[in-house]
Amino acid sequence: MTRDSEDVNRRLLRARDAMDRDYAAPLDVAALARVALMSSSHFSREFRRVFGETPYRYLQRRRVERAMFLLRTTRASVTDTCMAVGFTSLGTFSRTFTEVVGCSPSDYRTRTTGGPEPGPGTWPIRDPFGNHIRIGSLKG
């Protein structure tokens, strides 16, 4: 591995770490490319070459992984979970979740917790900044 490719990999890791840390924030390729000190097109091309998927797909997958955890461990509704992990559309969330996991968010919860989606409860979830959110308080 050359010194230049090591530098590129290090910068790509910095951008991927930002996605892992700030997955629920509204991130776009241009912002991530700035973190990696690259142009958007070069960043997208290199990210895919190194990690095997586009930055957008990686971010979606990270969000779905976090949603899986929340669906298993909280009483948050699917809508609240969708918003808490950074999706802005329930339809996009459900479609992406189904593509990645192989079943809908509601089916996933039923299969992994042994019951249907619970109604509003008192188990807190956290926003992207670590603050507790009461169930239902994400609705505009």
TrEMBL record:
GO MF entries: DNA-binding transcription factor activity; sequence-specific DNA binding
Record region (Disordered): 107-126
Pfam family, one: HTH_18
Domain of life of the organism encoding this protein: Bacteria
PROSITE patterns: HTH_ARAC_FAMILY_1, HTH_ARAC_FAMILY_2
Keyword rRNA-binding attached: no
All residue ranges annotated as the HTH araC/xylS-type domain in the record: 13-111
SMART domains: HTH_ARAC (SM00342)
Keywords: DNA-binding, Transcription, Transcription regulation
Bias kind Low complexity: ranges: 111-124
Keyword DNA-binding carried by entry: yes
InterPro entries: AraC_XylS_family_regulators, Homeodomain-like_sf, HTH_AraC, HTH_AraC-typ_CS, Tscrpt_reg_AraC-type_HTH
UniProt protein name: HTH araC/xylS-type domain-containing protein
